[in-house]
Amino acid sequence: MNTEQLHLVLQSAWNALPTLLAAAPVTLGFALAAMLLGLPLGFAVALARLSGVGALRGVSSVFVSFIRGTPLLVQIFVIYYGLPSLGITLSPVVGGVIALTLNAAAYLSETIRAAILSIPRGQREAATSLGLTGAQTMRLIVLPQAARVALPSLSNTLIGLVKDTSLVSVITVVELLRSAQLVIARTFEPFGPYLTAALMYWAISSALEVVQRGLERRFSRGT
């Protein structure tokens, strides 16, 4: 790469920056929405998989297996392009959030289930002997400890969601990647906008990693 080419790349990256900065909140918003919606759904799925009711275990296991065994991109296509054939039409934003939420919930459920199972059974038995109900034992004994165990994986899931939001660009959601593509369509210079988008994904993920480490230190002091 000569000096002129480097100048063109840097110039295109700089010109793309305002557009991509405007799209960054969309990317972060999709990731946070999927995480906030996926957490309670993932918790419910985890409880279903730990349930003594065979039907609940079966349905939840199939859900987790299907989501984890198929690409997220295919799931987005099924929800956004497939559902209209059944009379269900969703906007790109709603379709994208639903796809990301279902995907996140499947992975979060496994994290939550593993964290719950990591708590020694003796603690539950002790709580029962003290007269606590199953719900009280879960709320007061199991979940506070399970949250500390699950925190790193939960944080990693959020960081992964930030990167996965790039896939909703295929259904015309104008997030970081789609914004870079729109800039490229005007300028015909791909390297600068794509590099800028990559650096912004990295910056968001790095910021979330800093928050994750801070939360881990705070939780570790609380033990």
Give structural notes.
- By secondary structure, this protein is mostly helical.
- The protein has one domain: MetI-like fold (Orthogonal Bundle).
- The protein is 83% helix and 0% strand.
- The protein contains 8 helices and no strands.
- The chain has helices at residues 3-50, 54-69, 72-82, 92-117, 121-129, 134-164, 176-187, 191-221.
- α3 (72-82) packs across α4.
- The longest helix is centred in the N-terminal third of the chain and has 48 residues, at 3-50.
- It starts with a helix and ends with a helix.
- The mean pLDDT is 91.
- Keywords: Amino-acid transport, Cell membrane, Membrane, Transmembrane, Transmembrane helix, Transport.
- It comes from Deinococcus aerophilus.
- It is a multi-pass membrane protein.
- The chain crosses the membrane at residues 20-47, 59-83, 89-108.
- It holds the Pfam family BPD_transp_1.
